[in-house]
Amino acid sequence: MQFRIILSCLLLGSITCLGQELLSLGTADSTLFYVDSVETAGGMTGLSPDRIAMINVVKFKKVPEKYAARGINSVIYIETKPFAHERYNKLFSELSPAYAEALKKYGNDSSFQYILDGAVLTNSIEPLLAALEKKGIADISIISPKILKEQYKVTDMKAGVVIRSK
Length: 166
Prior knowledge:
- The chain is α/β, with parallel strands linked by helices.
- It folds into two domains: 2-80, no CATH class; 82-165, no CATH class.
- The protein has six helices and eight strands; from the N terminus they run αβββαβααββαβαβ.
- It has helices at residues 2-25, 65-68, 81-95, 97-106, 125-130, 145-152, and strands spanning 31-35, 38-40, 52-59, 74-80, 112-116, 119-120, 137-143, 159-165.
- The strands form two sheets. A four-stranded mixed sheet has the order 2-1-4-3. A four-stranded mixed sheet has the order 6-5-8-7.
- Helix 3 packs across helix 4.
- Residues 1-26 have low confidence and may be disordered.
- Keywords: Signal.
- Residues 1-19 form the signal peptide.
């Protein structure tokens, strides 16, 4: 009987602590927002959902110590599509000299067709490409319009960017 009482008290204490931790997450003062790598006090105010490429939430014990010292227990990182677009263009240029050359030749990637692991990307490509990390990319190659048409049935692009993940 004593064992059950002690066990019940321990479980109840654990649940109470967890509940307090969850409640503290909801306060506005304890959440820090970054939009395009810049700390912002306004959170997501004024940010249209169709401009967002990626949201990354870091909570509780994973919050870096520099934030925890300020009383922050959650950090929300938001990347807009233009910021993500610029970031993955830099990453792909670092990983593939052919990509960097094609980007320089055409001025931007608006005439590129992205193909990720065999799938032709058509709509809202920024969130998909923004989620790629350097360590997860096996290869990036550029294919000609002829190969793009033959293999992927894409006719209106100047180059194909084939990304193979690990």
